[in-house]
Structures are given as structure tokens and as C-alpha cells.
Design a protein that fits this description.
about 30% helix; alpha+beta; about 600 residues; 5-stranded antiparallel beta sheet
């Protein structure tokens, strides 16, 4: 910064830039067509500098923290010397800067005169990009070539002229071209808004000062991140967790292993030791593994640090190529979201050793991906895509959150009324499930179930879930959450379904998904008995489980805690432990259990 640096002007500039990224996000929200964007809000927006370095990210998905920089690097590599005003770029190739095929990036360079000053960046999950299964996110695909249309980094607009060939290729390869084109236009609209608002910023501050302030915004984030890291303990911590399977090799667990090394103002997140890439479509790209790593670290840093390139400079992420965290061709990756979420929880396990009073237990393992596709009687296609999660692990100071999206997702639920109006689906149930949250001084979040009734003649149901065998871990004596469940026709034959599958369904079939309960924190016998009573009264916990897990006896006639009986029961439970202390941290899951 120069000697004439004005901190007040810089603060106003920062907020103006951050507001542009947020206004881009609102533009997508207001103009998009598909439910996965307007309801789930599975998208992100950002603003990068002239070199493609992320300066600001909109208030959207943490899961895209690492994606925009990696995608921008690809655009700069391919087109850095071949850009001009009016250009816009499109891409989704997971092996050339992308994440998985449904996530399509749109980048627009922003110019002041003939000088490139910035990039507007958007990434949206599209409801369908072709492939063998409607929704393009099946977990049982075994290679990228089965998953849909793979778009290399290309110019969608060349000096303001639309590349109609690209649009034709997209139109002929997706099931819902009107919806996909509508969502692409929403992304372009967000980029247009960014271009207009950024021009106002340049007009106010001048080109040179704008460039200087953009560099300083990144440097500012780096300084804050490094200062925060300096305040954390130095050392090395490792954690291991397991994905149940990949949906192809059933019952074969997949190891996630992370080591965090922290020295001074620098942190290394090393995934060496993680399972080799698998046949099923849960392989991550490196950018998504970076995003999971950044999200974990950001959860223990102070608020107010901008999400931009400066944060990434202080946190080095390592994941060997050819692993489930960094797949290489021809790895299938459509369902990579599952692995990304689980990597975030794995980060919590390692960070809990570093900062036991700041880190929560594992959540429900989300998100669960559900897609239902097919054709109406007039052969018009329908595609329903839903991502659902809603149970946070217990925190060292409070219970886990109930009905709240995973930290990695920041998603919302589909409107039931809109879903039923737009798709051949009825939502018969959307409710909390008792007795599944992990017990603890602070209990895990309570999961919910959803029942989907299919009303068309036939269709295809695809589900990506987990946490059936390897349950959400508890911390510092907290119990693991109960496993997830899938059923077909629960009020009929009640057929138990695996955690990951694709199958045909018929009219009036009902699919039930039950999320896993989140892990608890601390000794359950230290839980406030009145908190146990409150959960029983709210039907989140049964009186039987209140006694079994917490030693709390509830007088259900008067709805009070029987204090004397509770003291006797807890004393007996402590005595039964004998010399055994409650484990400090439950690092590994108990033997698999399905009861």
C-alpha cells in the first residue's frame, strides 16, 4: 500500500466488492428455473481479479470454496492471452478445473476500456446434463463417460457473439434443455449484474486504485488468516473415518485419513493415506477436497475473514492423485458430494484433538442425494433432484442443531407445495425421528425422515446416502448417532434398500429416507435432566431411551423428572462402568450396528 492509503476508503471498497458477489447470488436465486437452485440453492458466485485470483465469494456454498480458484486456473491456462470484452466462458470438466458434470461454471471477464480488470464467476448445479440416469448424479456409475455431457473450457460468447454450436450440443444431450438454458441465463444475468456494479466501483475509485484495493483485499484476508493460525496450537493431529462403500463393491469400506500439521502461521492438510479411487461415482476432484479442508479450518477461525485467495495461501492441501479425494481419468465423480461432506466431518475429528472446546462431533453424513426421473404419458421428461441433510453434531457448549443443513452445504429444503405441483411426487411425511441422536452431555442433532410417493406410471429412483455401517462419531464420551435408513413401501412390504442404488419404481411406490442421527459430545450421564425431559416432551427422545442413554427417569403422568430414581439409576450406571472411564474422544466407530 502507498503512504496515502486510506483505511476508511479501503473498508468501503471491500464492502462494495463483497456486495457485488452477494448481489450476483441473489440474481441467480431470483431468475433461476430449477428447484435445485431456487430451493436447494446449490450454487455459488464470486468476483476475481484480472489474473483470476478470487477476491470475494457470495454468501452461498462453502462447498465451492476451492472450486472457483481451480476452475479459474483452467480458464487462464487455456485463454489467458485470448480474451476480449464481451467474452464469456463455460466449463464443467472435472479433469480440467471442474468438480462434477452437473456443476457448470460461467466466467465473464470484466473490462475497463481495453484493460481486463476482473472476472465475474458463477457455478450452478444443473438438474440434468445427460448421462445414463436422470439427474446425472448416480452413485453407481463406474466411469465419467456414463455421467453426462463433459464440457471442456470453451468460449460461450466470443466478443458478445453466442456460440450456437455449444448451445446446440447442450440442447441435444440434456433431458430438460429449457430448464438448463434458463439456469445458464441466470448465471449470465449474475455476471452482467457484476459487470455493471463493478463499473460503478471503478468510476468511483479509478482503475489504478481499484486494482490496488483488490490486491489489498486478498492480502488482508491472508494477514487475518495467518494471524488467526498463529493463535492456534502447533503440532500434528490425524484422524480416520470410513465411508460404508461406493455402491458397487458393497460392504467394502473406504478409508478417509487426514493429518493436520500446523506451524506458526501456516497449516498443511494432508490426505495421504486416503483410499485409492473407487469404481463408484463418489470420487472427489482435488478442488472439492480443498473446499472440504478449507471449510473445516474456517470453522475454527474468527468470523469476518473474507473468503478469497488470501485464505488459501495460508492453508496447503495435499491429496495424492488416484485416491478417492483426487480421482483421475476415467474416475466417476457425479456423487462426489458424499465424499466431500464426509471429508469435512473427518476434518472435525482431527481439529477436535487440536481444539477440544471449539469443534463439534460428526453430523448426519449428508447430504443425501435423491433423484427421480422419467417420462410422462406424452413422453415429456421430468427430473426431480433433492439434496437433504439436517443434523449437526453436538458442540462442546450446546446440542447439535436439528433440521439445519450441514456446514459444508448451507442449503435449504424444497418447498413441498412446489415439488408436488411441478413433479409426479407427493411428500407424505417430513418429520423428526426420535431416538436416533447420539447421546452426550450435549446430544447430537435429531434427524428427520421424508416419504416420497411416486404418482407417474414408471420412473427411475436414484439415491446416494451413507452412514449405515460407520455411524456419525461422537466426541469426548459422546455416543455415535444412529444409522441412516432407506425403505421401499414402508407401510407395505417394507423392503430395506441399500444406502446407494438406482432402481425402477412404479405408480404409488413410496420411498422413505431416514437421515442418520448426529454424534453426541461429552458424558451422557452429565446431561442436564431437564434437557432430557424437554426432549422427551418434544417427542425427540422416548422415555425408554431417556433411561437407557442418560439414566433419567421421567414420570410421564406428571411430566417431571423423578429426581431420586434418576440419581439411583445414574449411580448404578456409573458403578457398572467400574474402573473404566468414559473415553476422552471416540476416534473410531463401534462395531457396525443396524439395530
Amino acid at each position: 500500500m502507498s503512504a496515502t492509503y486510506d483505511p476508511i476508503a479501503f473498508e468501503l471498497f471491500k464492502n462494495a466488492i463483497f456486495s457485488i458477489a452477494d448481489e450476483m447470488a441473489l440474481t441467480v436465486f431470483r431468475t433461476t428455473y430449477s428447484g435445485v437452485l431456487k430451493d436447494n440453492m446449490d450454487y455459488s458466485t464470486g468476483l476475481a481479479d484480472a489474473d483470476g485470483k478470487l477476491v470475494a465469494q457470495g454468501l452461498t456454498l462453502p462447498g465451492h470454496l476451492g472450486s472457483v480458484p481451480t476452475a479459474m486456473e483452467s480458464i487462464m491456462r487455456h485463454f489467458g492471452n485470448d480474451m476480449r470484452p464481451g467474452d464469456a466462458f463455460i466449463m464443467n470438466d472435472p479433469f480440467d478445473g471442474g468438480m462434477h458434470l452437473p456443476d457448470i461454471f460461467i466466467f465473464k471477464p470484466i473490462y475497463h476500456g481495453d484493460e481486463r480488470m476482473a472476472f465475474a464467476a458463477t457455478v450452478c448445479h444443473h438438474s440434468d446434463v445427460g448421462g445414463r440416469v436422470a439427474g446425472s448424479n448416480a452413485s453407481d456409475s463406474t466411469e465419467i463417460y456414463a455421467e453426462g455431457l463433459r464440457i471442456a473450457p470453451l468460449k460461450l460468447y466470443d466478443a458478445g457473439v453466442l456460440n450456437q454450436t455449444i448451445m446446440t450440443f447442450i440442447e441435444r444431450n440434456v433431458r430438460l434443455p429449457v430448464q438448463v438454458f434458463g439456469d445458464l441465463r441466470a448465471q449470465l444475468a449474475a455476471c452482467h449484474v457484476a459487470e455493471k456494479k463493478f463499473a460503478q466501483v471503478v468510476a468511483k475509485y479509478g482503475a489504478q486504485q481499484t486494482k490496488t484495493f483488490m490486491r489489498e483485499t486478498i492480502d488482508y484476508a491472508e494477514r487475518l488468516t495467518r494471524k488467526a493460525l498463529e493463535g492456534l496450537p502447533d503440532g500434528e493431529w490425524s484422524f480416520e473415518d470410513w465411508i460404508d462403500d461406493d455402491g458397487i463393491d458393497r460392504g467394502k469400506p473406504i478409508r478417509l485419513f487426514v493429518t493436520i500439521r500446523k506451524r506458526g502461521d501456516h497449516m498443511v492438510v494432508d490426505w495421504t493415506g486416503t483410499h485409492p479411487q473407487v469404481k463408484g461415482a463418489i470420487n472427489n476432484t482435488l478442488s472439492y477436497t480443498k473446499a472440504a479442508s478449507y471449510t473445516g479450518v474456517r470453522s475454527v477461525l474468527p468470523t469476518g475473514i473474507p473468503n478469497n485467495e488470501g485464505v488459501f495461501r495460508a492453508i496447503e492441501v495435499i491429496c495424492p492423485a488416484g485416491t478417492v479425494g483426487n480421482g483421475v481419468l476415467p474416475a466417476a465423480c457425479a456423487a462426489r458430494g458424499l465424499t466431500g461432506f464426509r471429508m469435512t466431518d473427518c476434518m472435525f475429528g482431527a481439529l477436535a484433538m487440536m481444539l477440544p472446546d471449539k469443534v463439534k462431533a460428526a453430523g448426519d453424513g449428508g447430504n443425501t442425494g435423491i433423484s427421480i426421473g422419467g417420462y410422462h404419458a406424452d413422453r415429456k421428461p421430468f427430473v426431480y433432484v433433492d439434496f437433504t441433510c439436517g443434523a449437526w453434531g453436538a458442540r462442546p457448549w450446546a446440542d447439535g442443531l436439528d433440521g439445519n443443513s450441514h456446514m459444508f452445504a448451507n442449503m435449504a429444503s424444497h418447498s413441498i407445495e412446489v415439488t408436488e405441483a411441478e413433479h409426479p411426487i407427493q411428500l407424505l411425511a417430513y418429520e423428526f425421528v426420535p431416538d436416533k441422536a447420539g447421546a452426550g452431555k450435549y446430544r447430537g442433532g435429531v434427524p428427520f425422515r421424508r416419504d416420497y410417493r411416486f404418482t407417474e406410471a414408471e420412473g427411475v429412483l436414484q439415491v446416494r446416502s451413507d452412514r449405515r455401517d460407520h455411524r456419525p462419531f461422537g466426541l469426548y464420551g459422546g455416543s455415535p448417532g444412529r444409522p441412516s435408513e432407506n425403505y421401499l413401501n414402508p407401510d407395505g412390504e417394507n423392503h430395506v434398500l441399500p444406502s446407494k442404488f438406482t432402481m425402477d419404481i412404479r405408480k404409488d411406490d413410496v420411498f422413505r429416507h431416514v437421515l442418520a442421527g448426529a454424534g453426541g459430545w461429552g458424558d451422557p450421564l452429565e446431561r442436564d435432566s431437564e434437557a432430557v425431559l424437554r426432549d422427551v416432551r418434544n417427542e425427540l427422545l422416548s422415555p425408554v431411551k431417556a433411561e437407557a442413554d442418560y439414566g433419567v427417569i421421567i414420570d410421564t403422568a406428571r411430566w417431571v423428572v423423578d429426581i431420586e430414581a434418576t440419581e439411583r439409576r445414574r449411580a448404578a450406571m456409573r458403578k457398572a462402568r467400574g474402573w473404566r472411564e468414559v473415553p476422552t474422544v471416540q476416534w473410531r466407530d463401534p462395531p457396525p450396528s443396524r439395530d
